């Protein structure tokens, strides 16, 4: 494991009163804009050169309006980070769930179903605002069909040819996302996300999804979550010669923190083993809430 493989997620709030520690993720906090800049500076000095931004708007609605606002919290944070820490690689999560009042990752039609095409159009609109703000990488996490090709076309037409796409290609409908949903307030208000996220027992579909995203122009492909899907990660590494990311998600982080707090295991050693397992399985990029701690120990 090398520090330059690690990406630290950052939660950024539009309303300062929403900033503060996240109870279900000890050691992780929501930052206001100034706090996010300060945290990025500290990360960079520690050797963590990449961050993945998640925005928490002041208001949410059915159309995820806060996601594509030119002065949205993620857009302003991208600009601020690129100004304050120019060499930091700034990735921006590209999804609607943080911005919709129903908590789903897309536009809901009159039947209560996700409208794939309308959602892809919205994602393209958001992606262009991220590129305009200065993002190095956009990271579509929605699992809509065809979105990578559409986003690539939209970015290229808007002058964003240099902006890379990191696709959440094999994103499973997992129980391990709970603490994240608390952090950003994105739990679905009805139904669940199984109609567009992947079925946990299905490994072969993951390889088909990755192949589709590679063919559509993804620069990096991702498996999410990490620990329960190391077999998928390894299978992807064997089949695809492209940069491969893994997301060590909130539930995986929270489990280690809870067990360590109770004295049931050595938290630092456990985190080291987990991060090493991702690289051993074939990951080039590891998105993890342990990144800062790891850098403080070994940077």
Describe this protein's structure:
With 299 residues, the chain is α/β, with parallel strands linked by helices. It has a single domain, classed as Alpha-Beta Barrel (TIM Barrel), CATH 3.20.20.70. It contains 11 helices and 10 strands. It has helices at residues 33-46, 65-68, 73-84, 116-133, 147-157, 178-184, 204-216, 230-239, 250-261, 267-281, 291-298; strands at 6-13, 20-21, 29-31, 50-56, 89-94, 137-140, 164-171, 220-224, 244-248, 285-288. It has an 8-stranded parallel barrel, surrounded by 8 helices. Strand 2 (20-21) and strand 3 (29-31) form a beta hairpin. The longest helix has 18 residues, at 116-133. The termini are close together. The mean pLDDT is 91.
List the helices and strands and how they pair.
Elements: E1 6-13, E2 20-21, E3 29-31, H1 33-46, E4 50-56, H2 65-68, H3 73-84, E5 89-94, H4 116-133, E6 137-140, H5 147-157, E7 164-171, H6 178-184, H7 204-216, E8 220-224, H8 230-239, E9 244-248, H9 250-261, H10 267-281, E10 285-288, H11 291-298
Parallel strand pairs: 1-3, 1-4, 1-10, 4-5, 5-6, 6-7, 7-8, 8-9, 9-10
Antiparallel strand pairs: 2-3
Helix pairs in contact: 1-3, 3-4, 4-5, 7-8, 8-10
Short description:
Helix content is 41%, strand content 17%.
């Amino acid at each position: 494991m090398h520090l330059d493989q690690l990406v630290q997620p950052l939660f950024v709030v539009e309303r300062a009163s929403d900033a503060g520690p996240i109870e279900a993720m000890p050691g992780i906090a929501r930052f206001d804009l100034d706090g996010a800049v300060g945290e990025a500076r500290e990360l960079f000095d520690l050797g963590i050169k990449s961050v993945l931004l998640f925005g928490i708007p002041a208001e949410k609605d059915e159309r995820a309006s806060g996601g594509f606002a030119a002065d949205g919290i993620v857009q302003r944070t991208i600009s601020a980070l690129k100004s304050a820490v120019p060499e930091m690689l700034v990735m921006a999560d590209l999804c609607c769930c943080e911005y919709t009042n129903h908590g789903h990752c897309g536009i809901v039609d009159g039947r209560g179903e996700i409208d794939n095409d309308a959602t892809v159009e919205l994602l393209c609109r958001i992606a262009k605002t991220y590129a305009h703000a200065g993002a190095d990488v956009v990271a579509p996490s929605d699992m809509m069909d065809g979105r990578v090709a559409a986003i690539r076309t939209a970015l290229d037409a808007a002058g964003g040819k240099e902006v890379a796409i990191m696709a959440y290609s094999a994103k499973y409908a997992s129980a391990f996302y709970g603490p994240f949903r608390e952090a950003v307030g994105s739990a679905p208000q009805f139904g669940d996300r199984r109609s567009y996220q992947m079925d946990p027992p299905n490994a072969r579909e993951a390889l088909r999804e990755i192949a589709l995203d590679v063919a559509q122009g993804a620069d990096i492909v991702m498996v999410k979550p990490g620990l329960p899907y190391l077999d998928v990660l390894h299978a992807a590494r064997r089949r695809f010669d492209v940069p491969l990311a893994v997301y060590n998600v909130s539930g995986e982080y929270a489990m280690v923190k809870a067990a360590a707090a109770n004295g049931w295991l050595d938290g630092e050693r456990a985190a080291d083993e987990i991060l090493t397992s991702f690289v051993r399985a074939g990951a080039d990029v590891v998105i993890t809430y342990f990144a800062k701690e790891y850098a403080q120990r070994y940077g």
